[in-house]
Specification:
This protein is an alpha/beta fold. The protein has 19 helices and 16 strands. Helix content is 33%, strand content 15%. The protein starts with 5 loop residues before the first helix and ends in an 18-residue tail after the last helix.
Length: 486
């Protein structure tokens, strides 16, 4: 155990962010570099080492949180890193991007602010990289079996690394020009600088994983032919079909899916573009959707110099405290102020878009909305609450509806889908096609990065068993497992 009295003597303290007027002028991560290290051992000491660590249940990876909290408290960073990597291939990703369901399940959080698990995690892994403790782990021998992984997001990368380390020859296929999937082009630089992805990719290359970019399975390579070339295939193509908003005026110029808008901003940071073809500069921006992707659009618009930013959410504003219907240790729906929201803009809840209005050139100029409320479990409009707000750039960030079925991958493989449009799979993450497995959002539906990594690790075990007859790889979750929610 760390400090037995740590949770009594130390208050919760989180990472410090840079001043708003400074950080909106660049695309670097919003946190003050190095600000966690002086405080993190004390924060780790707040871990109670409770008899039943519910944080394990809150985290689908089953992270050994009390163990690496203890090592962090003692500043034994090498051992902390070893315990962290025992369950998580990419803690630098989750430590920056995960909403930390483990903290919602923290026992201390019953009546006090929870342990800063996420901050401890990211400090351990950053220290490990700085100290040279993160090294390639190539397999001792090769199995002679080959695996193709389709998609290079967190699920695909996790599956690929596990299978490579198990001795299989793995090639990752990515339709974009760089590896990383949504980590690369869906997450803005100010949330996670892409150098973190780049050095993981180099580690994986050194272990033996091969990468094939600008290759879309279904279009560039027939899926059935790919299956014949490899002993097994893992589909980790994510749930990339964006939810649309079919209202009058949707066809106007200036209305874009979030995943049309965000990747272009990231390409500017990669040096591919001087300026984004879709920019918020000088425009009144409206973001439809109140989730993390919407917040990413808000922060991006700030940095591009938007005249104003308004974020719309059809659901009511969440409370600051747990709802009685969302008791500990479930993940509560709370009002969340992200770094992007700290930077300005307006958030409007309980509203629905009725239509868009444009100018004579077909460019969007106004968004018409109406207030809504729930009555008898149904969403109803409130008469007399109609109004319009200026909107010269609109981003649709309302989530995703399933895996891409337009590129031919599903049809060419002959995959069966479940009732939600996801690729169906069995207990081993295997599809109806022998030797073809599915991991991540393509099989689960839109979810969190921590679930994607857990899916990749678990699917890798299923593939390893299929190829070798048995497997010692860990499988932290089953396909049917769901987040700890009510």
């Amino acid at each position: 155990m760390a400090d037995p009295k740590g949770f009594l003597s130390t208050d919760r303290e989180v990472a410090k962010t840079r001043p708003v007027d400074e950080r909106v002028k660049d695309w670097n991560e919003v946190y003050v570099p190095g600000s966690l290290l002086p405080i993190i051992s004390k924060q780790a000491s707040r871990c109670m080492d409770c008899g039943i660590p519910f944080c394990h249940n809150g985290c689908p990876l089953g992270n050994l949180i009390p163990e690496w909290n203890d090592y962090a408290y003692r500043e034994d960073w090498r051992e902390a890193s070893e315990r962290l990597h025992a369950t998580n291939n990419f803690p630098e990703f989750t430590g920056r991007l995960c909403p930390a369901p483990c903290e919602s399940a923290c026992v201390l959080g019953i009546n006090q602010p929870a342990v800063t698990i996420k901050n401890v995690e990211v400090t351990i892994i950053d220290k490990a990289w700085d100290s040279g403790d993160v090294t390639p782990q190539p397999p001792e021998r090769l199995s002679g079996k080959t695996v193709a992984v389709i998609g290079s997001g967190p699920a695909g990368l996790a599956a690929a690394q596990q299978l490579t380390r198990a001795g299989h020859t793995v090639a990752v296929y990515e339709r974009a020009d760089r590896i990383g999937g949504l980590l690369r082009y869906g997450i803005p630089e100010f949330k996670m600088e892409k150098r973190h992805i780049n050095r993981r990719i180099e580690q994986m290359r050194a272990e033996g994983t091969k990468f094939r970019t600008e290759t879309e399975i279904g279009r560039d390579i027939d899926a059935a032919k790919l299956r014949k070339r490899y002993d097994a295939v893992v589909i980790a193509a994510s749930a990339t079909t964006s939810r649309d908003l079919p209202v009058p005026g949707r066809e106007l110029n200036g209305i874009h899916f979030a995943m049309e808008y965000l990747p272009l901003a990231n390409k500017v940071q990669e040096g591919d573009l001087t300026t984004s073809p879709i920019t918020a500069e000088g425009k009144h921006v409206v973001v439809i959707g109140g989730g993390d992707t919407g917040a990413d659009c808000v922060g991006t618009a700030h940095r591009q110099g938007a005249a104003s930013v308004t974020q719309l959410e059809i659901m009511p504003k969440p409370g600051d405290e747990r709802n009685p219907n969302q008791p500990w240790p479930t993940f509560p729906m709370l009002y969340k102020v992200t770094s992007a929201h700290e930077e300005g803009g307006e958030r409007i809840y309980s509203v629905s878009t009725t239509h868009f209005e444009g100018d004579e050139d077909g460019n969007v100029q106004w968004l018409h909305l109406i207030e809504v409320e729930f009555k008898d479990g149904k969403l109803e409009q409130k008469p007399g609450t109609e109004r319009k707000i200026p909107a010269q750039l609109v981003t649709l960030a309302m989530g995703f509806t399933g895996t891409d079925q337009q590129n031919g991958l599903v049809e060419q493989f002959g995959l069966e889908l479940d009732e939600r449009g996801n690729v169906a799979r069995d207990a081993d993450f295997a599809t109806n096609v022998p030797g073809v497995f599915v991991a991540g959002d393509a099989g689960r539906g839109q979810s969190l990065i921590v679930w994607a990594i857990a899916e990749g690790r678990s699917a890798a075990r299923g593939v390893d068993r299929y190829l070798a007859g048995a497997s010692e790889l860990p499988a932290p979750i089953r396909p049917t497992d769901r987040a700890l929610m009510v």
